[in-house]
Amino acid sequence: MTDAPLGLYVHWPYCARICPYCDFNVYKARGDDEALFQSLVADLGYWAERLERRSLVSIHFGGGTPSLMTPAQIGELIGKAELMFGFAPLIEIGLEANPNDSDGFEGFRAAGINRLSLGVQSFQDDALVALGRDHDGAAAHRSHELARKNFDAVSLDLIYAREGQTLADWEAELTAILSEQPGHVSAYQLTIEPGTAFDRRVARGELIPPGDSLGAELYTLTQTLCADAGMTGYEISNHCREGQSSRHNRLYWEGADWIGIGPGAHGRMGNFRSGGRVASTTVLKPAAYIEQVTRTGCGSDIETLSALDEARERILMGLRISDGLDIDRITALTGHSIDLEEAGRLERQGLIGIDDRIVRLTPDGRLYADGIAQLLCP
């Protein structure tokens, strides 16, 4: 049994309402979800039979809206995971939830959930209407209070850089949110994704999001306000108080292993079959996922990554966290390194710092994280 960390991601694709900015693999909720749930259990069993046994350090229920699952379903899946893999001490078991599902918080806690990611997006009624959300500010406040009573860790998901939002607006809004002393905040700029309802509205001239310059100012303001409130920006969009960082998300950023089950889930695992690192991608539509699991036992297509692709992925993800990118570790794992000449140029421009072979984005560099990662890739 290896000590290498392993996580489990469970994608529940159903939502009560499809948000106009969302490009995730989501579908309008329906009444009969039992067939999908049983396919999740079967898919998990497939991986348990084929991976070297090691304890799970985290489980994360995402979506979609996994808080539409029943506490009994969540509890059963957690129990199956423990039986098949075992749990590491202090395992993090997280659930993404909408404020309107707060009546189920006690049941989710009893089922084994200890971390809640609460999709409030805003506490302001007008902003929630503009974002197409199905809750209001009062529900956001009420659900945050109930979440803190029921779970060891609570994260607030927020969206800023909304249409018409000014620096003064966001400063007042975020300051009020931070005054409630949240343990963790995930604050994301509104991105207009292709194919979404917001994308179509932009094309028709019905929605005008902030430009890049204001977006950068809003981002910088977010970093400043969170830091002043005692919340460390440990990742580009994530801030926390001591001991409240997301253990599961760190698996992604640090290039660890995780299993992905459910329609639209992704996974990464090392030393599987050929000995190389593999990427697993499940089929998207729930009916197709159920059919594939029924037929083959597994809902994923599995591809072995080339060493170069693995190196590039590790650079793209690892550069996001404040811990930084370990040049020697990437070389040891993949045989590839970053572009050192480009790194020197970026360092002279003040966009990255290199200390003891660790590359970190500077505050200015965080504004261009994806572009810098591309430049550093071999």
UniProtKB/TrEMBL annotation:
<keyword id="KW-0479">Metal-binding</keyword>
<dbReference type="InterPro" id="IPR006638">
    <property type="entry name" value="Elp3/MiaA/NifB-like_rSAM"/>
</dbReference>
<dbReference type="InterPro" id="IPR010723">
    <property type="entry name" value="HemN_C"/>
</dbReference>
<dbReference type="Pfam" id="PF04055">
    <property type="entry name" value="Radical_SAM"/>
</dbReference>
<keyword id="KW-0143">Chaperone</keyword>
<keyword id="KW-0349">Heme</keyword>
<feature type="domain" description="Radical SAM core">
    <location>
        <begin position="1"/>
        <end position="232"/>
    </location>
</feature>
<keyword id="KW-0963">Cytoplasm</keyword>
<keyword id="KW-0004">4Fe-4S</keyword>
<keyword id="KW-0411">Iron-sulfur</keyword>
<comment type="similarity">
    <text>Belongs to the anaerobic coproporphyrinogen-III oxidase family. HemW subfamily.</text>
</comment>
<protein>
    <recommendedName>
        <fullName>Heme chaperone HemW</fullName>
    </recommendedName>
</protein>
<keyword id="KW-0408">Iron</keyword>
<dbReference type="Pfam" id="PF06969">
    <property type="entry name" value="HemN_C"/>
</dbReference>
<comment type="function">
    <text>Probably acts as a heme chaperone, transferring heme to an unknown acceptor. Binds one molecule of heme per monomer, possibly covalently. Binds 1 [4Fe-4S] cluster. The cluster is coordinated with 3 cysteines and an exchangeable S-adenosyl-L-methionine.</text>
</comment>
<dbReference type="InterPro" id="IPR034505">
    <property type="entry name" value="Coproporphyrinogen-III_oxidase"/>
</dbReference>
<dbReference type="InterPro" id="IPR007197">
    <property type="entry name" value="rSAM"/>
</dbReference>
<dbReference type="InterPro" id="IPR058240">
    <property type="entry name" value="rSAM_sf"/>
</dbReference>
<dbReference type="InterPro" id="IPR004559">
    <property type="entry name" value="HemW-like"/>
</dbReference>
<keyword id="KW-0949">S-adenosyl-L-methionine</keyword>
